[in-house]
Design a protein that fits this description.
With 155 residues, the chain is an alpha/beta fold. The chain has a single domain, classed as 3-Layer(aba) Sandwich (Alpha/beta knot), CATH 3.40.1280.10. The protein contains five helices and five strands. The protein has a five-stranded parallel β-sheet with strand order 2-1-4-3-5. α3 packs across α5. The two termini are 25 Å apart.
Length: 155
Amino acid sequence: MRIHLIAVGDRMPAWVQAGYAEYAKRLPRECSLRLVEIAPGKRTKGADVARLMAEEGDRILAAIPKGALVVALEVKGQPWSTEDLSRRLGEWMQGGRDVALLVGGPDGLDARGRARADLLWSLSPLTLPHPLVRVVLAEQIYRAHSLLRGHPYHR
């Protein structure tokens, strides 16, 4: 099983790239994490935000692997504890389907991405910077996997 983190945004700061890479490399092949960066639309003064979101949505939908379980990261989604995520991760691994995690841009995820999702997951009721979400997701997936394996990382 592969987890595809499909996120709007590119040209991330070095600390984001390093943080994401640190946790992604810790995951084993049977639960690998792959980042797919979606180019954001240019948000200039007077830009048509709805059009930009729709274009980002097109690119996100095109990046979802065929047959993947789709999880949209949404502030109005269901909050999961680390234990919840670990249980779900175990189920996903047993199911053998790839998983696509969708992270929208600065204005959120296009409605079609939410509609395409099998699950809506909220990391927090807080508004998190999108670069930080990548690092948090990678760390939590690693933590959930270590919990599944009885590794002492999760205490």
